[in-house]
Amino acid sequence: MPGQRVEIAFAGTHAGFARGFERLRAALDAERLEGATRYDVELVFEEIVANIVGHGARNGCEPRVHVTLEPRPDSIVLIFADDGVPFDPRGRPDPVIPKSLAEARVGGFGLMLVRHAASSLDYERTADDCNCLTVVVPRR
User: Fold this and answer.
1) In the chain, at which residue ranges do the beta strands (DSSP E only) sit?
2) Full set of structural domains in the chain with CATH
3) Rounded to 5 degrees, what are φ and ψ at 136?
4) Which of 2, 11, 21, 103 could form a disulfide with 71 if both were Cys (CB 3.0 to 4.6 A apart)?
5) What does the pLDDT average to over 88-108?
6) What does the pLDDT average to over 49-77?
7) pLDDT value at 98 more than 90
């Protein structure tokens, strides 16, 4: 039986990210979520929030972040809302996989990892000028 919906709000800073991640882990503990599904949920949270913190500042102000965790029988739904710069991740192409270590660079694979962990991604820019990204992670 799925647990209750959890709301996690924090400043779009590194310290806020750390507090938000602690709250996420506590919610996953309460849900008794383990294994591959837990890994995927934590990965999605980490990658999306890292992008918000790293790239979402508008006019020199860090974004406010609100994450909703909604356990369902067959999935975990994560809804990310932030008031940062507009960003729709759905249209971003996957990076080119390097042919060698010499060609490899650090970073740029987060959205690809999110797409592989998720069964769906949906994005909208809301009427109140916020990003709203819904990511469904199937239970495995």
Assistant:
1) 6-11, 64-71, 75-82, 120-125, 131-138
2) 6-138 (3.30.565.10)
3) -105, 120
4) 2
5) 73
6) 94
7) no
